[in-house]
Specification:
By secondary structure, the chain is an alpha+beta fold. The protein is built from 9 helices and 6 strands, in the order αβααααββββαβααα. Helices cover 39% and strands 15% of the residues. The longest helix has 27 residues.
């Protein structure tokens, strides 16, 4: 007697397939909605009243001095370790003074032509000397610049020992006054009450995003079809069509096109500034 095979179909199989499709669509939609609302956020970094932007708030020699301070501030602890490496037992550790900086040719403290061009700031050192290991706020004050409208700078190094390790918190402060006395302490609140403002090292790109919005670069690229304002293709090539590396002679009218693009950029910036001012009212 031969066996017979029967195909048994599940009851409501078609409905189950439709339900599975509907559940998949709902899941994908929910994930898309979540990503849209909770995905990458382009937050605008605020600048508080007691802060100043290194890019937009400082100009001329003050910006140059800040750039030097920001560059060398991380080298000062290494100089500190070097000059105290062979201290005698019982000899107190000390931070590098202005003479040490002359030996290390460290700007903006080193008195060279650049120091003169930046106003010849008079730098002084405040070095706390408590009992035991040296800890506290070491401060370098730069003041009495010779250039008009030049401010003063304060580099505060919070030095704390913990066992065999130490930490250094470095903050650069600026004030628009030409002459300032050395603060009695490097605590933030006290410096703010005296009028000092912490310098925030925002880059140019961050400033553009803060002023014109997170999509400022993308909007500019869209307006100029990927070309920067100077008329050069975004890939760095000399023309928009040649990819074999051959040079192409300048086409008459390039200067006019560049000027037109620069004018469009200026108009874009003016419109963005107008929108920014309108939001602030």
């Amino acid at each position: 007697m031969s066996a017979m095979a029967y195909e048994v179909r599940p009851a409501g199989g078609r409905l189950e397939g439709l339900a599975m499709i509907a559940a998949t669509v709902a899941l994908v939609g929910a994930l898309g909605f979540y990503v849209y609302w909770r995905g990458e956020e382009h937050s605008i970094e605020p600048i508080y009243d007691w802060q100043v932007s290194a890019f937009a708030g400082l100009t001329g020699p003050d910006q140059a001095i800040y750039n030097s301070l920001y560059t060398v501030k991380d080298e000062i602890p290494f100089i500190y370790d070097d000059i105290n490496r062979f201290n005698e037992p019982g000899q107190k550790f000390h931070w590098p003074n202005l003479t040490d900086f002359q030996d290390w040719l460290l700007p903006p403290f080193y008195k060279d032509t650049s120091w003169e061009q930046q106003g010849s700031l008079n730098w002084t050192l405040f070095e706390p000397l408590p009992e035991g290991e040296m800890q506290g706020s070491t401060m370098y004050l730069g003041t009495d610049g010779k250039l008009p409208s030049q401010g003063s700078f304060l580099l505060v190094i919070g030095h704390v020992h913990a066992g065999f390790q130490n930490t250094n918190a470095m903050v650069i402060w600026w004030i628009s006054k030409n002459h300032m006395e050395m603060p009695k302490s490097g605590f933030r609140d006290g410096l703010i009450l005296q009028g000092w403002r912490e310098v925030v090292p925002y880059s140019g790109q961050q400033e553009v995003k803060r002023l014109f919005g997170a999509d400022a670069v993308e909007r500019a690229k869209a307006q100029f079809n990927g070309f920067p304002p100077d008329g050069t293709p975004a890939d760095g090539s000399t023309d928009g069509g040649s990819t074999d590396g051959s040079s192409t002679a300048a086409v008459p009218g390039d200067d006019a096109a560049t000027k037109a693009k620069n004018a469009d950029v200026e108009q874009l910036i003016q419109d963005a500034l107008g929108q920014d001012k309108g939001k602030g009212k």
